[in-house]
Specification:
With 134 residues, this protein is an all-alpha fold. The protein has five helices and two strands. The protein has a two-stranded antiparallel ribbon. It is elongated and about 65 Å long.
Amino acid sequence: LTTMEMCIQQTVEYTKTRVAFGKPILANQVVQFRLAELQTEIEALRSLVYRAAGLRVQGQDVTLLASMAKLKAGRLVREVADSCLQYWGGMGFVNETPITRVYRDQRILSIGGGADEVMLGIISKLMGVVPKEK
């Protein structure tokens, strides 16, 4: 979560100074709204993680919630990095920036420790939507 928040914060700071068509990139409402949407998604993920942690502390099985959180985290970090990198333009892709590093390095979250498809399989099974084999 912290990595995603860092991406957004650094993108906000950068887009305040990056000018296109005579005004800062951040002056565009579409950029403001996209960053707000991403921050909202991060907060929703944080709530899911805290809920799972709280239930685990109480001794409950949180396999379903943990699988959901891992799936969402892996996908969201890619979305945040990709969206933020877009606002950095070529500077963010060519030069070594924290955004570039996140874009490149965080891909492993959807692979290591259980790929997205594995998490979806667990979630589907625990939801009871996978037909039982005869």
